[in-house]
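REQUEST FORM: STRUCTURE PREDICTION
Request ID: SP-0412
Submitted by: Lab K.M.
Chain count: 1
Length (residues): 248
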Amino acid sequence: MNILETRGLTHDFEGLKVITGVDLQVAEGERHAIIGPNGAGKTTLFNLITGTYTPKGGKVIFKNKDVTGARPHQMVRLGMGRSFQITSTFSRLTAFQNIRMAVLSKRGIRFNIFRFVDKMDDVTRETDEILKRINLDGERNIPASGLSYGKSRSLEISMALATDPEVVMLDEPTAGMSVDETHYAVGLIQRLTEGKTMVIIEHDMDVVFSLADRITVLHHGEILASGAPGEIRKNPKVKEAYLGEMEI
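STATUS: Completed
RESULT:
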């Protein structure tokens, strides 16, 4: 059963077509990668699905419900979490405080200065458990701005997952990471997304083939091919489109 679909999705920026009639299907529990060159429309597609942009045409279907035009906070409440291409943690807050914000969001608790969140022992306990799972318990009280790039990205991925989404959308989670950081991030993603549906944009083909059950290739705003990793490796259209540009 598909948990997420787009049907005839289109979008443009001042007449420049970016997404053209995209029909995407993501099965429940699937790890689905979206690949393609810069300018293919991958992040725009994510923005349309997660509510950052409103499509010019077509539909977004999530859990058999038409959610076209729903705002990002509404998509979170429906069970969709997202990380971004650029790290989007709260730089002045500690690693603990960042994760706690996500835990509070999941519980429907609005943070404000009148709430004594430090006295919410169950929230503190859950936050510390997450930090331990991602090996950031040693950096619990360090501001996000003081973390290494790899750890900051891991923190952001964990924030997206701390809301306990049914579908997690990861936009280039290993971008800018070293080889060691990438290896760690892949293991982290595998652990944290176990039993969940994941959709990932990624340029690193080693990461894609390590994580994905299914791959969709986006080219000039259209789906060029979609299938299992082995099918995508052998697809002549994919080979032609990426000749000299990416190794698959």
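NOTES: The beta strands are 2-13, 16-27, 31-35, 57-62, 65-66, 80-83, 167-171, 197-201, 214-219, 222-227.
Reviewed by: T.R.
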